[in-house]
Amino acid sequence: MSNSSLFSFLLFLLFFSLLNLLSGFIINQNKLYPKEDDESWLHRQPPAATPPTAGYPKSKLIGLILSFAVLIGILCLPTPSDLSTAGHRMIGILFFAIVLWISSAVSYPVSATMLTALTAVLLGTAPNIDAPTKILGTSNALKIAISGYSTPAWALVAAAMFISVAMTKTGLDRRIALNVLSRIGTKTSRIYIGVIFTGFILSFFVPSATARLACLIPIILGILDSLGINRQSKLAALLVIGATQADTLWNIMVQTAAAQNLVAVGFISTQLNTSVSWIDWLLAAAPYSLVMVVIYYFLSMWLLKPDEHDLEGSQKELQQHLQNLGPMTFNEKKLLVLSVILLGFWATGGHLHKYDTTTTTVVAIALFLMPGIGIIDWKYAQSRIDWGSIVMFGAGISLGTALLKTKAATWLANAFIHMFALETLTIFALLATITLFLIMIHLGFASATALSSAMIPIVISIVTAVNMPGINPIGLTVIAQFSICFGFILPVNSPQGMVSYSSGTFEVKTFMKTGIPITIIGYIMLLVYAATYWHWIGFV
Prior knowledge:
By secondary structure, the protein is an all-alpha fold. The chain has 24 helices and no strands.
């Protein structure tokens, strides 16, 4: 066995061993975010992907030790002849990050700092990949380690945070939700449809599933409490879980609805030198997401079987909340107009004009902050923005960039291709293999953004390296990103899942009751669409 083959064999052996450890870590993670008896959580800012915990649990300590052990172990392996020293070290950092994220050993902002430091030191002391006789230097390595903070994708996510803050301050998101729900009817099925449809509307205007759930769940709980319905009832579980899972499906549909989508778009732009417009993404994803939401509606109604069937008084309660909001304020009207204009620019970008999504969003934020025109001021915004998530997002992009610059992503892709004979598969079988792998590994991640940062560069390298006739790397990457959005099985698999779990309306097993079947159905439907609609439009 060659040096390269031995290295890749040991690497993948290690990787699948880590996957076997996921179940233990997942059990521990399910204990990390206790339900709260009061409603103080409703008034806090949406939490980062890893909820705060008291002390430092043993499971986290094990995860931290294991992550460094994996890093050191990989670095101690002999470097394959077809892999640079810098690439070898970046593979070690990648697996370090994966173990760190899977185990939630530290918060995401802390992990971002650790990754930046490791990249700067380990790459800085490695030979320059373009000039092997010279050391890269820590200054040059640091530029790579923080390169993610200068990308359009990072700027777009940061700007999107301001939109969420503006929505929260004006109460426009709450007004939209109340208006939709107050017109839907009193039957359980209608209330449930209203909750799902509200998430659909908000996904176009609020670029964060966590923020959307933080707006919607208090309204749901308010309805239940006003009608004297127990928060531990089947109806409560149905509405909260349904809102969460539907929001995950809306993440797939709308490019700007979730940060992980923007990670994928950013890597597609840098690796494939092309862009996926907002409207092209919507046209590809909407038929899938809409059908999946309908399937989930009937599946959840069947499996969760709510107790109450007629909620007399719910409309009165919602109308009362609307009255309490008062008439629409001038700031709400400004935000609504600006949001609709922004949505129009997103939808027509690349077709009716040449302004990219990031630029139009940054311009909108400038207007949001401008005195006289603006809706929020910097002092108000900066104290309410989740800067930790922004730091993590930049570090994730930097990790992917470093994997690309050192050719580590290409080497891993080739190793993956040869080890599993992917070059012998059809395009359809290749897609089925990649998406299944991503869905499985997501079980260990609490952030789809982190998963996208680690895996999308490798996915792109795989789909470009297999060199199959008729393959569309852009389409396959976008579909792979759809599967990365899957986070249906456990609340810990997404920040919005953790927010909904904190409401105290369901147990983990209840979440899994619909989560497992919708994951299986979602995967099957991915393959069905790959063989039909996505094939017809040239994605596959």
